[in-house]
Design brief:
about 375 residues; Rossmann fold; four-stranded parallel β-sheet; about 20% strand; binds D-glutamic acid; hydrolase; Asp/glu_Ase-like_sf; Asparaginase
Length: about 375
């Protein structure tokens, strides 16, 4: 009796089941063995971004005599490779390598060092095997270095600056987590194209706005309009975008800037000033002077004529405010048109100094410089 088509299919299925099982028994161990041969770390490394961490010194590289020294310590002591080695968790985030460019307190940054750092970052971001750059930096002048890089680097790749308020030897040192969080941000896709970022105390700040607001606290970094985002449990969360042009959208290019930057000096106003100070500064021949006035950049009645004389000498006089925030109003309380002065927008004196110095590499026209202060 011939078998019905259904019976034939059933026999074929019964034969097929053991065949599938045999194949599975052979294939599963072979696939598993293949996965074992390739070390897990190597497999994952392919997917991780490559980050270069440039060490410049600061408290993040600091060491105190004892664990209770949180404010009394030497900064710029520990090599960047050691700082990286102290945070092995970063290996899960990125392939990191260190490069020591300086070992200094950031108060010692000058044009020469700033340009050297900026040019090195510029070289690194051009390398196809570098996905992001981090910079360990003293906190004192992070706001200036970061603003300068934000204005002059031509890259969309993340550039993240990080520091610490307590040395690595202190109880509750903040450096290791700051470094880890900075790596999380630098490795993230979301950080691309947002300009230079500063990561401290679980917050992500735009270089344009960030300023150091306290001499000791770990929550010292503040942005006038709030941070761009936060880092929580190894994830960056961005909530805002920088609105001012930066990096690829500016007219300044670090590769085109050589030699010392045009000199811009700062005069800080206070009660009972000595007008001769202004003459003395003018005598040094700066290209511009930031006059950090009280309130809305106010100029004392007895300082008006000496300040007018400064601009008459061809030095660009820029009125700023010592209050720490707020726009300085042109021709508001002061006769800017008449006296030949210009105003900052909302930048503090140290940021205005940096931008005015860059602006002077392009133009000597005070009005054009003021336009850049409003733009950037
Ligand atoms: N002098 C400081 C500097 O390098 C140490 C302060 C810090 O890094 O927090 O900026």
């Amino acid at each position: 009796m011939s078998k019905s088509p259904n019976a034939t299919q059933n026999i074929q299925r019964r034969r097929a089941v053991p065949l599938v099982l045999i194949l599975a028994f052979i294939a599963v161990p072979v696939i598993a063995a293949a996965q074992e041969i390739k070390p897990a770390t190597e497999a994952a490394a392919v997917a991780r971004p490559n980050i270069v961490i440039i060490g410049t010194g600061g408290t993040i590289a600091g060491a105190g005599a004892s664990s209770v020294n949180t404010g009394d310590y030497d900064s710029a002591k520990v090599a960047v490779d050691k700082i990286i080695a102290a945070v092995p968790e970063m290996k899960q985030v990125a392939n990191v390598r260190g490069e020591q460019i300086f070992q200094i307190g950031s108060e010692s940054f000058n044009d020469e060092r700033l340009l050297k750092l900026a040019k090195r970052v510029s070289e690194l971001v051009k390398q196809p095997d570098v996905d992001a750059v981090m910079i360990t930096h003293g906190t004192d002048t992070i706001e200036e270095t970061s603003y300068f890089l934000n204005l002059t680097l031509k890259t969309e790749k993340p550039v993240v600056i990080v520091g610490a308020m307590r040395p690595g030897t202190a109880l509750s040192a903040d450096g290791p987590l700051n470094l880890y969080n900075a790596a999380i941000v630098a490795a993230s896709e979301e950080a691309r194209g947002k300009g230079v970022l500063v990561v401290m105390n679980d917050e992500i700040h735009s270089a344009r706005d960030v300023t150091k607001s306290n001499a000791l606290k770990v929550e010292t970094f503040k942005s006038l309009y709030g941070p761009l985002g936060v880092v929580v449990e190894s994830k960056p969360y961005f909530y805002r975008l920088p609105s001012r042009p930066h990096t690829t959208a500016t007219e300044f290019d670090i590769d085109q800037i050589n030699g010392p930057l045009p000199e811009v000096d700062v005069f800080y106003a206070h009660a009972s000033m000595n007008p001769k100070m202004l003459d003395a500064i003018a005598g040094l021949g700066p290209k511009a002077l930031i006059y950090v006035g009280s309130g809305n950049g106010s100029v004392a009645d007895y300082m008006e004529e000496p300040l007018k004389q400064v601009s008459a000498k061809g030095i660009v006089v820029v009125r700023a405010t010592r209050t720490g925030s707020g726009l300085v109003v042109r021709n508001g309380e002061e006769k800017d048109d008449e006296n030949g002065w210009i105003v900052t927008a909302d930048q503090n004196a140290q940021k205005a100094r940096m931008l005015v110095s860059l602006a002077l590499t392009k133009t000597q026209d005070p009005k054009a410089i003021e336009a850049m202060l409003y733009k950037y």
